Amino acid sequence: MNDVINPFQITHPTAIQTSLLASALFSKFDPSGRWIAAGKQNGSVVIWDLDTKAPVRVLDGHVRGVTSVDWSRYGRYVLTSSKDWNVIVWDLAERLAGSSTRGGGAGGGGGGLQRMKTVRFDSSVMSASFHPRNSKIILVLLSTGELFITDLRREYRGRVELCDTLFQRELREREREREKLEEGEEGEGGGGGGGRQTPSSVPPPTSTSREAKRSPITVARFDISGRYVFAGTANGMLLVFNTRTKAMVGRHRVAGAGTMKSLDFTRNGRRLVTNSSDRTLRQFTIPNYQQTSSSSHTNNNTNSSSNSTPMLATATTAPNVNEQELEPTHRFNDPINKTAWHVMAYSPDGEWLAGGGSFV
């Protein structure tokens, strides 16, 4: 029988060892743990070397505050997003080898070579992340709640919006019912000669499009394998999309969650934790979407014969969606102080979950 681990005997740092004066909004380690990218309010991103505790590169490409930073799988590329509506992919292969020259703009000592690709969207970008296994595929979330997969490969270049296809289907069905009801009452009024439509006889437009607004997506991430995209919405829904087919394969309601704020996965990809506006961390066991994905892929191939370039995921591409309500295996909250969690992370083995908050 295994002994119970005593958390008070685990060695851990008890003091801050080093501070980097970066004036940053946030930061992120590269996969090797040697470099750290720090995003700033002035639109620049500083790359720090943790061995020398010195900045080795400054990426000047945005004109407004940086909203997210991500590293590619092997640390060669950096992905930055900003409130200036742009997403930039930076190639750091040559500079991080040993040069500490400032650059990144057009005149910054080879900065033009560093900025590999700039993608512009229609509103400010909340977050952008690389695919875990392919740095040519990026996931972009806009401040309007729209979510896009952007493929930078030459043969597949384009962007596809990921949206709640079941909501679209329900909205279309309700709109058709309303139109039929209006046509029927018009026929009755015309046949009677003196019949007139009363304002109460025809359902107002507010019963469909104006009331049934799509809930915006507030957070999105690739899973560990990169096969699926998990997205949380403002009304406590968890949407799951197949990365390859762009079809929705899961639509789960999380009871009492409220607005989704962040997501994280264990390294083996079997568990998921959500942080929501009700100040509770919820851990779930991820369902198996293999069967749903294969059905969606078959239907997507059938539809592609009539439309060779489908650029928007629609209800016709995902008829089979897992809609079971997810029941959390654990809930974590602060019942005394009602602390709101700002960040959370799993330990490398997935046995520990850390949550960070602030007392106001």
TrEMBL record:
WD repeats: 29-58, 59-92
Top-rank taxon: Eukaryota
Annotated Low complexity bias: 292-309
Compartments it resides in: Nucleus
Chain spans, region Disordered: 174-215, 287-313
Entry keyword set: Nucleus, Repeat, WD repeat
Entries under Pfam families matching the protein: WD40 (PF00400)
One CC-aspect GO term: Set1C/COMPASS complex
Stated name of the protein: WD40 repeat-like protein
The species this protein was found in: Leucocoprinus leucothites
Lineage: Eukaryota, Fungi, Dikarya, Basidiomycota, Agaricomycotina
